[in-house]
Amino acid sequence: MSQLVEKTPSPRTRKSIYNDLKELGVKKGMTIIVHTSLSSLGWVNGGAVTVIQALMDAVTEEGTIVMPSQTVEISDPAEWENPPVPEEWWEEIRETMPVYHPDYTPANFMGKVPEVFRTFPGIERSSHPSYSFTAWGKDKKHILADQSLEWSLGEESPLRKLYDQGAHVLLLGAGFDSCTAFHLAEYRVEYQDVITKGAPMIEDGERIWKEYKELEFRDELFEDLGADFVKTHSLSAGNVGSAKSYLFEVKEAVDYAEMWLNLYDRRKSESL
């Protein structure tokens, strides 16, 4: 018997997960950006498929489900650290790296639920080669349209549209280090470290290596940021299956993150 089965008091099913989502506050017609840790839910009968079906049951086609489907491996090998590759490989990797395609490029490092969600009927995906999103439901086309190449998680990204639309973040067993919405705040703070990134793309029928400007993201701060967010705000919290889960507004999270990051940077500057 697996450890996951041993730790699960009863099977998690489409109906039980749906009931837990409704108890947490997920409603028909809601727009949610979802981050999941499938194993945290306990033993789920049907795995990722069941979780996705329960989410769709909860928001219905009158709502919208969004998930990050990032492909960070489509990037300059000079940046790679986990693991790095020899410098003498870099040029050949750039020349032969497959171009991102929304239909079949896998989201290799996002977990089981986002990768399975990507393949569901009715799913659409945004165009960014490294920082794409997938979506299902009423407003999917609007949310995914016109994501900019530069500043990919900023003011011309699905995150800004979720912010403006009154969407919610749903963390299903995932930590605040997974809260992609916090990145939007990074474009609104005083301190910004701008870097150059690259990816293969097709322009005018030709494959080229395209460079673009981006921020050096500071995901390593998000757990502490999230812990303070929980302490200072009344979030909807509860268990979905066995997973500690949170539901909160994108706008509330981004506004708090902007304040928190500015304060963090000022304190760091004063301590130098």
Automatic annotation (TrEMBL):
**EC code(s) of this entry:** 2.3.1.-
Q: Which reaction does it catalyse?
A: a 2-deoxystreptamine antibiotic + acetyl-CoA = an N(3)-acetyl-2-deoxystreptamine antibiotic + CoA + H(+)
Source domain of life is: Bacteria
Keyword Membrane listed: no
Give GO BP annotations, semicolon-separated: response to antibiotic
- Say yes or no: keyword Acyltransferase present: yes
List, alphabetically, the Pfam families matched: Antibiotic_NAT
Enzyme class (EC, first level) = transferase
> Could you give a GO molecular-function term held by this entry?
aminoglycoside 3-N-acetyltransferase activity
Name this protein carries in UniProt: Aminoglycoside N(3)-acetyltransferase
